[in-house]
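Why does residue order matter? Because the sequence determines the fold. Keep that principle in mind as you read this record.
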Amino acid sequence: MDNKFPGKDITDSDLKDKFPLSSSLNKKKIVKIDNNISFGGDVVPIISGPNGIENKDLIFKCCEVLEKNNLKLLRGQIYKPLTFPYRSKKYYEVGDEGLKILEEVKKNFDVLIVSEVMETEKLELMKDIVDVFQIGARNMQNFPLISKTAKLNKPIILKRHFGCSIRDLLGSSEYALIEKNEKVILCERGISAPHTHKSTSRFMLDIQAIPAIKEYSCLPIISDPSHACFWHEWVEPLTLASLAAGAEGLMIEFHPDPREAAVDPLQAVNFDEFTNLVKKLRLIGSSLNKKIF
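Structure:
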């Protein structure tokens, strides 16, 4: 059947010709992170932490919360593709200095670090510290970055750009898979929409993309409700909805004092809210025969 809207929707021929490595015609991929954590099977891992690590004291407190909740994947962002180039004492990311903090984290806590890479030049600095590389939404079609990151043979989370189709996302994943790195995890993080139902929300979580990607692709799909809704009160219902829709992993932002966060202070939940959310996820997960880890 011909595609009447080229570039928008997926056809049967696309599955064979455009993304032969990521399509659902292949065996379902399970991306193993360690002996207990994998994406695409019966475990639904939670990646959590602040938007950016900010400082040693803050990230240590976040690691303690992870340990109390029996979680292991830390959102340890040190490089941020912020919308505007202006920084201040209030609005910043830690950059290269954050690598030293992440080293301290690994010495003191049994966590695995998920962190975004923005430039190929930073890969050498990050490769021995970061366990899972994130290619952010703005770099979803930065093919040289995807290819070089894939050559490290570490797991990659590839976030869908807020203006791109699933077809585009799967096309981007091929740039990693063709480098013989099959450890690719897709992430839905919200799309641009004419109505987001709140003036502060820039995007809308595309829940429908979760079952759609599972239909079209063999790669695991996870959800990032925090970045999608940009509003902390909506994070819990969207997280629970993502799990119900079949998300194979979740990315949740939390912070000891969310409204004082250095970046995106509206979307993080506090420690107690996060702990309560994890409890609810485990209750729902048990009914779906899924282990939240």
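The mean pLDDT is 95.
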